[in-house]
């Protein structure tokens, strides 16, 4: 589905019965909404799931060449337009990695719309990309030792109509005060981060500074947990929701 705006065209998709609780899925850096393809088939049994590509990434288009149009504020406004189009007022949220940064920003601006959130691979500190890559390699080695089969990436999980626009879209994280934003969250949330993901340090700090959150550490899992272990992340997501 597509929603045409003045300066953007937003791509989104829905799965499941609309009578089920709404669930918004926010994709990670370099990803498109297709990253959720493996888990969404199971999610649609209990949720009305909404996936979307932020403007400039995946199949969404940003007509503006202005870098100022790539902000968490603008992405949040875009999501609200999708939700309003679907007549959804409140919803549950699941995000991964960079998408968790965006989701935290959204939650600080529109806390009354979020019922609960699951923040995968959460960090509001400096993103150490090299450490993330290194940790992922080590996690995959451990999984291989344990005989855990590697999942194939969903088709189109990192495909974009405009590669340069997709790259520019990631700059939004450096323009937002995530520490201040995180302190505004008052709804129930779960953080689940792999033990081989360097983001775990920030995840623990976030939980230690919150009265609302719960932390689950995923064993032998690196950065990009939903893509890497969709089975384990889905199991924990549903367990936390009591499904």
Structural write-up:
This protein is α/β, with parallel strands linked by helices and 243 residues long. The chain has one domain: Rossmann fold (3-Layer(aba) Sandwich), CATH 3.40.50.1820. The protein contains nine helices and nine strands. Strands 1, 2, 3, 4, 5, 6, 7, 8 and 9 form a nine-stranded mixed beta sheet that branches. Strand 8 (189-194), helix 7 and strand 9 form a beta-alpha-beta unit. Helix 1 (37-43) packs parallel to helix 9 (230-240). The longest helix has 17 residues, at 129-145. The two termini are 28 Å apart. The mean pLDDT is 96.
Descriptive key words:
nine-stranded mixed beta sheet, 243 residues, alpha/beta, 9 helices, Rossmann fold
Secondary structure layout:
Blueprint: E1 2-4, E2 8-15, E3 22-26, H1 37-43, E4 48-52, E5 61-62, H2 72-85, E6 91-96, H3 98-109, E7 114-120, H4 129-145, H5 163-169, H6 178-182, E8 189-194, H7 200-208, E9 213-218, H8 225-228, H9 230-240
Parallel strand pairs: 3-4, 3-6, 6-7, 7-8, 8-9
Antiparallel strand pairs: 1-2, 2-4, 2-5
Quick summary of this structure?
This protein has 243 residues and is an alpha/beta fold. It is built from nine helices and nine strands.
